[in-house]
Predict the structure.
Amino acid sequence: MDKIIQGIIQAVQLIVDADPVVTEIVVLSLLVSGTALLISTLVGIPLGALMGLSRFAGRRLVIALLYTGMGFPPVVVGLFVYLMLSRSGPLAGLNLPFVPALFTPGAMVIAQTIISFPLVAGFTMAAVMGVDPQLRLQIRSLGATPLQTTLAILSESRVGVIVSIIAGFGSIISEVGAVMLVGGNIEGRTRVLTTAIVLETRKGAFDVAIALGIILLAITFLTNLAVLRLQGRALEE
């Protein structure tokens, strides 16, 4: 018990002093997860809106794939990305400039994007489908174009859309399996909050591990707090 209390005290001291190692890990974590979330948002919201507002052949199959992706084990995603980017993988011989190498932040961004994208798209689709269908008919009757109609529906379901983005972020900021596989947990290059916690715990550096754990919990708490505030505003409206 004394070791735990001492570890917490040292962890707080590391956070207060803005320890360079801890700061570097936090910044890289937010950079990788933020980039992955941005890509997921730019692709997932339009796709979710399309799935919620359109009817086309193969729509049920796409929805089934989205739902499957929402529950996909992150470590399997990491394995898939690892095999695709490895030297013997299908992308190795193409020499494409936008395809990153393994054990780089770019590879971690790809893995986290695959994890968060189905959540953003799936929750956006659910939010759009929850809007009263009569509203869509009213907007169209006023002469709105398909794009204007879509934007109006997204605006009406904005709380659900924002929640989908926050859910996507929460799924990747706390993920460890995929980033460990494709990033390699290299100090100063690919070490993020979750992988650093695992490593520091194995080394017995509980003060650093606890400090990183507190920061990760704080980020998760702020994410959940944002969701609750948005839900509260929706109920007030």
